[in-house]
Amino acid sequence: MDLQDALGSTIQAIDGLVLVHPKIGRGLPPSRLRVFPPNACGRDSVYADLPALESPFSEAASRHLPVAKEKHPGKSRNKVFLAGYESYVHDHGALVLHPGRTDYLRTRALEEAFDNGEFTEAYVNGELEILTDLPGLVAVVGAIVTSDEHLILAQRRDSEGWGSLCYSMSFEEGWEPGLDAEPVDVVRRGLSEEFHLDEDHGVVIDDSRIQLLGIGREWGEFWNTVLAYIVHVPCDAGFVLRSWGGMLDGPVDHREHKGLAAVSLRRNWHQLLELADRGSTVTESWLARVNASRAGHLSRGEIHPTHGRARLLWALNAFPPLGRS
Questions:
Q1: Is residue 325 one of the residues assigned to a domain?
Q2: Can you tell me the distance from the alpha carbon of 208 to that of 213, in angstroms, rounded to the nearest whole number?
Q3: Residue 204 domain flag
Q4: Which of 13, 59, 103, 310 could form a disulfide with 76 if both were Cys (CB 3.0 to 4.6 A apart)?
Q5: 255 in a structural domain
Q6: Residue 117: helix, strand or coil by DSSP?
Q7: Is residue 213 a part of any domain in this protein?
Q8: Angle ∠(98,100,105) on CA atoms, nearest 5
Q9: Which CATH number is 24's domain given?
Q10: Range with the poorest average pLDDT among 108-117, 118-127, 277-286, 289-298
Q11: Helix 308-318 crosses helix 269-278 at what angle (to 10 degrees)?
Q12: Given this model, what pLDDT does residue 5 score?
């Protein structure tokens, strides 16, 4: 069942991403996004006291846990789901997130339940609320824009993870309690772990360069909750490609991506819009047409199937084409 057809104008969606909080505008800085309780996910956190998944999600996770363990063997890491959120227009657009506790295997078990259609009718008839009942893990996704206004496209390597061999704008990281007190920490960890864009490698990125663009929930595939950011890094595209290239000799498990492409946002605005409009495939001919700078080994691949198009459109919205403002 197509959720938007069923619910009509009550939701907004872009491909496989339902927009949970579409009124953020052109970006919300970290200072206006708060986590409650404040120390919920930090190193000295009260994570164990956070709310857990409730019915019907807890029962479904338990039913499908054996299948999830068989498909995804190994230790299940603690994760965060979005138990609730509040926005305060009078407080300059402040947004408060209320995290809950879950883990990787329960997330995968719920994926089995969603894939089987176990919750679809409940969302359509109103027993579950599409914009607030969000049991999937929280994934923080970031679009990297360089100082010379290039967007970094990263092709995920072939693995069992979400979005294998797809192109991302530009990275994805799960919110890890104990490592990340708040979403901006997840953004910084992704920049560091995946690209070496951190102070240890000579790149200082202050909070004013990091902005939340939107919150969405994946529907039809993966089923997680997405916090979408844009990051304006203080270095050019060549630096980013070289920095990432310097990681290639490291352990393969530490590399989420098999290659990067840097595409000028302004010079290729319409070509990027065309890619977003058709939700299509990045090919060798397309990369040549936009004169993309590259690192690693890129191959034919789709943009990320659930949130790729939304993230691309958000990035384009921040950078009008040449001749327009």
A1: no
A2: 13
A3: yes
A4: 103
A5: yes
A6: coil
A7: yes
A8: 150
A9: 3.90.79.10
A10: 277-286
A11: 150
A12: 62
